[in-house]
Design a protein that fits this description.
single chain, mainly alpha, Four Helix Bundle (Hemerythrin (Met), subunit A), about 0% strand, elongated
């Protein structure tokens, strides 16, 4: 499986979002490692962690867009919804005993980079405008609240 190497082009400039994206990249790479080791149980565990974390990340992004009144949030959410449906299908197929790791890994490799650069890049300017201190200490209470809300 191909590994994703985090590069500066993937950064949104919003630290909390970039950290979440890096964690998704880490899970994708772990999925590849588990498959390369031919460890079905580990593959399943990583797969479930990856899916759960990605879905939590979507909810976090959607909440952020709502907080700043992002006008194209509905379009972005539809993109997330379409991906949620794909993920739900992968989980169902996996639970039915099908090996979906390779297929999911390929999808995530393509989708993640495209989503970060195109879809996420569209809301970043508004977030930075509405919450100019998003990366500073002054927003720590906002970020801590959001992180607790989505990543318990």
């Amino acid at each position: 499986m191909a590994y994703i190497k985090w590069i500066g082009d993937y950064a949104t400039g919003i630290n909390v979002i970039d950290s979440q994206h890096k964690r998704i990249v880490h899970y994708i790479n772990q999925l590849g490692d588990a498959q390369n080791m031919n460890e079905p149980e580990l593959t399943g565990e990583v797969l479930m962690n990856l899916v759960d974390y990605t879905l939590s990340h979507f909810a976090f992004e959607e909440s952020l867009m709502e907080d700043v009144g992002y006008d194209a949030a509905a379009i972005h959410i539809k993109t997330h919804d379409a991906f949620r449906e794909k993920i739900k299908n992968y989980k169902k197929r996996y639970k039915a005993g099908e090996d979906v790791a390779e297929e999911l890994n390929q999808l995530l490799n393509i989708w993640l980079v495209s989503h970060i650069q195109d879809d996420d890049g569209s809301y970043v300017p508004m977030v930075k405008e509405k919450i100019p201190e998003i990366n500073g200490d002054e927003t720590q209470s906002w970020i801590k609240y959001k992180i607790k809300q989505f990543f318990k």
